[in-house]
Model the fold of this input.
Amino acid sequence: MTWNSAIKKYESYLKIERSLSNNSIINYLFDIEAFIKYYEIDKEKKKPKEVNSEEIQSFVYEEAKYKSSYSMTRRISGLKSFFNYLSFENIRKDNPTDLIEAPKLGRKLPEVLSVIEIEKILSTIKISEPQGIRNIAIIETIYGSGLRVSELVNLTISSLFFKEKIIKIIGKGNKERLVPMGDYSKKFIEIYLKNNRSVGKIDPRYSDVLFLNRNGKQLTRAMIFTLIKKYGQKAQITKKISPHTLRHSFATHLLENGADLRTIQVMMGHESITTTEIYAHMDTKYLKSVMKGFHPRKS
Done:
């Protein structure tokens, strides 16, 4: 089997059997293409089953010279997944990545904004400016419901239930979850739909997509990053912020105000509670309250 045919079959496997998002699939395929590019492999001649562990190790060693531990962990994970698939399909008898170890990573605490900082960012957006209402609604929705940026740009009008104040989200792996709609995001989404979105021309392909650009098309992830960075700078926020910062702030503020980790896990769409536990490490007040409430030797 050639590289081209193996990659096509692997892509179908990721899409159909693992139900990964398009962004995740692109990342997995990029890892394979990086390996192919490094060795300048003729994809129609050399076969995937001919790759040996020494070649994988050499590739990883060279990449590690200029990539971070996180990037290398991502790269190794992608290669392991591909060769595991080949072994599973009996395309090759062994996995050349079995002896390759990913760097050990420490748990990195995400940047978090205070409520005052978020209000400062929102205050820099003028309702009178082009797309002002839309941009307020975007920030209020990410922060108010803890959405990933990919979930935000794919949000549809039909997934909004204003009476119940609920949003239906299609998250990672096409998994569906319901999250509460914040009062402020509800207010500004309704204004945006009534007075702003309906005014301009809308591309029929995106008629159900909630947030649109000035040409009536779906916003990109990059555009959301640019918007939030711009308003953060206008608000003179010195922290490095992104849509993820607002999502992290949503979870942290819930925890600070008494929400339990299990509830936060469900709202964030985390598959494992260990992912959500990072927020407990950020909030010592939460840890102290758990100690005081449940430890038999509390003072």
